[in-house]
Design goal:
The complex is a heterodimer of chains A (190) and B (556).
Chain A: H1 2-5, H2 35-43, H3 48-55, H4 79-91, E1 96-101, E2 108-111, H5 118-129, E3 133-134, H6 138-144, E4 152-157, E5 163-165, H7 171-176, E6 182-187
Chain B: H1 22-29, H2 35-42, H3 46-55, E1 58-61, H4 69-75, E2 81-85, H5 105-114, E3 120-124, H6 130-139, E4 145-149, E5 152-155, H7 156-165, E6 171-175, E7 178-180, E8 199-201, H8 211-220, E9 226-228, H9 235-244, E10 250-252, H10 264-271, E11 278-280, E12 295-299, H11 303-313, E13 319-323, H12 338-347, E14 353-358, H13 363-372, E15 378-383, H14 398-407, E16 413-415, H15 422-431, E17 437-441, H16 447-455, E18 462-466, H17 472-477, H18 479-484, E19 487-491, H19 497-506, E20 510-515, E21 535-540, E22 553-555
Parallel strand pairs in B: 1-2, 2-3, 3-4, 4-6, 5-7, 6-8, 8-9, 9-10, 10-11, 12-13, 13-14, 14-15, 15-16, 16-17, 17-18, 18-19
Antiparallel strand pairs in B: 19-21, 20-21, 20-22
Helix pairs in contact in B: 1-3, 2-3, 4-5, 5-6, 6-7, 9-10, 11-12, 12-13, 13-14, 14-15, 15-16
Classes of the chains: A alpha/beta (190), B alpha/beta (556).
GO biological process, one term (chain B): SCF-dependent proteasomal ubiquitin-dependent protein catabolic process
Domain COI1 F-box (chain B): 20-57
InterPro entries (chain B): COI1_F-box, F-box-like_dom_sf, Leu-rich_rpt, Leu-rich_rpt_Cys-con_subtyp, LRR_dom_sf, Transp_inhibit
Chain lengths: 190, 556
């Protein structure tokens, strides 16, 4: 299990949150939409060609004027609207978590705030990792499907360092408390 | 008919309608709602002029400097509803120097004097002070409607005066104003006996509003139909507010995006018993689009796929506005392209007004949009990076915009952008017969471009241009056209002071205002004809040169 999380280039998790609720983690820094972060994180370690094309500016775009040549009063947006838009854009919080599959050193990242519940999370992860995943009530799962092969189980590490099954904490708490943790998928014996 | 009578004809031979008293004509004119029709009638003969002007109830002064307030009050003594507009449109984007003018005070003073029965007052892009608002509250005993759009100069103290003083207020509509927050609880100054509100819009207010006071107000105003809140009201309180005020039909939440909130829309829909709640907020991730949605404003975070959803679900959509979430983000992380607009234009048959910010466009897309939606009346496309060509063919977007003006015969407002040559202006000049307002930025390659516009565009009223290579010649060659228009704005073009002087000499009924860099406030008289000017604002007026210009604005 530990090997998945290893790696010196992991960003330090420095949360001092004193919340008593173990929550899923985020590794993004605050409220700014971390879209640039996202693309860099996802593509580190992949083949160099795709990484470089993503880090370079879009080659299809028209060579644009350097920032200092385009006037400040362009594009034509009213100041009130400009303030509202930047406030709204900034206010869009993100809650990125890293997800690793056991045995695979390269993880995935997703924004929990784009999902609306554990079901969406599972669906998204099943799609990302192309496997079946279960959470919370594993016993239930195995009772329902007794002969099913061992599925992956979604777990996370809470602030005490304990590995917990995802799904017991109500989703509202999960999405409202920013904290820095990680999730791992784990194999469970069927 | 009204031909100036030949005095030789005996009285008996005159048609009987000549003898009709004014009241009959006044009644007849009451069936002409359009000011232009009334104006035409007034021009027919003296008796019609007298009857029309004395019975005019609604007056719209589209340029506060086109006539003096005294002129207006004298000519139309029976006005009950007045609308006055001030600064040029580009003032919205900071192009007009501060303290340029457009004070509402002279208008309020004249109205207080000459129109004591005034019921409605509307100011747009004007400087409205707290004193103005106090005077309004004190001067008109049957005041019902106050609408302030893109104004500045007042605070919550002025709003308090309105709340406390206007007993019969039906509408308080504050749109996009700069309002100073004096921490006065103006909302609580509506007396307990006050119940007449039908529309309340304070979406532009940046301060907090007491939710309990608001609840009591909306509860007792049983006729309240439209409520547009600011973003200080927590979204989760909205549902309970709606429960208390089921008479509300239109709700604005004062936001572009709802912070993630479980079941927000379900709760709102459950609270709202009526049909057709138009909630003007767009959730970033979920679209609870009412099939009745007529007006949709959203950030580009909706992306093309979101607009496809809009296209397929809102077939009653009339107006769409898509704003950039990050206007200065050159890399363009958001996937909003020409595709979104094409989809909406294809599937929304009633769509007639669009404001669309995007980063790329093609002629092909514009041609398709033009073909899909010949019923556009307002088409404003802003490609964020200036001079951006068709991103596939690398051609100018002349063909695309030409298609728009050729197909949309009823187009009254157009904003163009992207890489454009003089060619597109030839098409616009020739085909945009109903166009009243045209906005041009970073376009054209020579004087010809401006000449095409000024010599064509039969119905042109407002022309605003910035950062285009247009010079003196087309301006002087088409001087007469300027008197048929309301106003012309040109900034960062290639105009000389000499041309402005010539224009002013040639056209005495135009006011030619030249604005230069406030740092360089030396009197114009000392400058040579060849001096390039920064900003020009020309408008027709019967009031002569105004006397309230700041130092950086000079009338030539």
């Amino acid at each position: 299990m530990a090997e998945c999380k290893g790696g010196g280039d992991r960003s330090p998790s420095s949360s001092m949150d004193s919340s008593t609720h173990p929550v899923l983690s985020t590794t993004s820094s605050g409220c700014r939409p971390a879209r640039r972060d996202l693309s860099i994180d996802l593509h580190l370690g992949l083949s160099l060609s795709s990484a470089s094309s993503l880090l370079a500016p879009d080659s299809k775009s028209i060579p644009s004027k350097p920032r200092n040549q385009v006037p400040l009063d362009w594009p034509p947006i009213k100041p009130f609207l400009k303030r509202t838009l930047t406030a709204s854009a900034r206010r869009r919080r993100t809650l990125f978590v890293k997800v690793y599959m056991e045995g695979v050193p390269i993880g995935r990242k997703l924004d929990l705030l784009l999902l609306d519940g554990y079901d969406s999370l599972l669906a998204k992860l099943c799609h990302m990792f192309k496997t079946s995943i279960t959470y919370a009530d594993v016993m239930e799962y195995h009772r329902r499907v007794p002969h099913e092969k061992a599925a992956y189980v979604l777990t996370y590490e809470d602030q005490d360092g304990d590995w917990m099954m995802v799904g017991d904490v109500p989703w509202e708490y999960v999405s409202s408390l920013p904290d820095k943790r990680e999730e791992t998928e784990d194999c469970k014996n069927g | 008919m009204g031909r100036g009578g030949s005095r030789a004809a005996p009285a008996a031979a005159m048609p009987p309608w000549h003898a009709l008293p004014d009241e009959v004509w006044e009644h007849a004119f009451s069936f002409l709602p359009a000011a232009s029709d009334r104006g035409a009638a007034a021009g027919a003969c003296r008796s019609w002029l007298r009857a029309e002007r004395r019975s005019r109830r609604r007056l719209s002064v589209a340029n506060c400097y086109a006539a003096s307030p005294q002129d207006a009050v004298e000519r139309f003594p029976a006005v009950r509803a007045a609308e006055v507009k001030g600064k040029p449109h580009f003032a919205d984007f900071g192009l007009v120097p501060p303290a340029w003018g457009a004070a509402a005070a002279p208008w309020v003073a004249a109205a207080a004097d000459g129109w004591p029965l005034l019921e409605e007052l509307s100011f747009k892009r004007m400087v409205v002070t707290d004193e103005c608002l106090e005077m309004i509250a004190a001067s008109f005993r049957n005041f019902q409607v106050l609408r302030l759009v893109s104004c500045e100069g007042f605070s919550t103290a002025g709003l308090a005066a309105i709340a406390a003083g206007c007993r019969n207020l039906r509408e308080l509509d504050l749109q996009e104003n700069e309002i100073e927050d004096c921490s006065i609880h103006w909302l609580s100054l509506f007396p307990e006996s006050f119940t007449s509100l039908v529309t309340l819009n304070f979406s532009c207010l940046e301060g907090d509003v007491n939710i309990n006071v608001l609840e009591r107000l909306v509860t007792r105003c049983r006729n309240l139909k439209t409520l547009k809140l600011n973003n200080s009201i927590p979204l989760d309180k909205l549902a309970s507010l709606l429960h208390k005020a089921p008479q509300i039909v239109e709700l604005g939440t004062g936001r572009f995006s709802a912070d993630y909130h479980p079941n927000l829309f379900e709760k709102l829909e459950a609270a709202f018993a009526g049909d057709g709640l138009a909630v003007s907020v767009s959730h970033l991730h979920k679209f609870h689009l009412n099939i009745e949605t007529v007006n949709f404003q959203v950030m580009d975070l909706i992306e093309d796929h979101g607009l496809a959803v809009v296209a397929s679900s809102c077939n009653k959509l009339q107006e769409l506005r898509v704003f950039p979430s990050d206007p200065f983000d050159a890399a363009g992380q958001v996937s909003l392209t020409e595709r979104g607009l094409v989809d909406v234009s294809a599937s929304c048959p009633m769509l007639e007004s669009v404001l669309y910010f995007c980063r790329r466009m093609t002629n092909e897309a514009l041609i398709a949009i033009a073909k899909n939606r010949p019923n556009f009346t307002c088409f404003r496309l802003c490609i964020i990076e200036p001079h951006t060509p068709d991103y596939i063919t690398h051609q100018p977007l002349d063909a695309g915009f030409s298609a728009i003006v050729e197909s949309c015969k009823g187009l009254t407002r157009l904003s163009v952008s992207g890489l454009l040559t003089d060619h597109v202006f030839k098409s616009i000049g020739a085909h945009a017969d109903r166009l009243e307002m045209l906005s041009i930025a970073f376009a054209g390659n020579s004087d010809l471009g401006l000449h095409y516009i000024l010599s064509g565009c039969k119905s042109l009223k407002k022309l605003e241009i910035r950062d285009c290579p247009f010079g003196d010649k087309p301006l002087l060659a088409n001087a007469a056209k300027l008197e048929t228009m309301r106003s012309l704005w040109m900034s960062s073009c290639s105009l000389t002071l000499g041309a402005c002087r010539q224009l002013a000499r040639k056209m005495p009924r135009l006011s030619v205002e030249v604005m230069n860099d406030p740092e360089r406030a030396c009197p114009l008289d000392s400058l040579a004809d060849e001096t390039l000017i920064d900003k020009l604002y020309v408008y027709r007026t019967i009031a002569g040169p105004r006397s309230d210009t700041p130092a950086c604005v000079q009338i030539v």
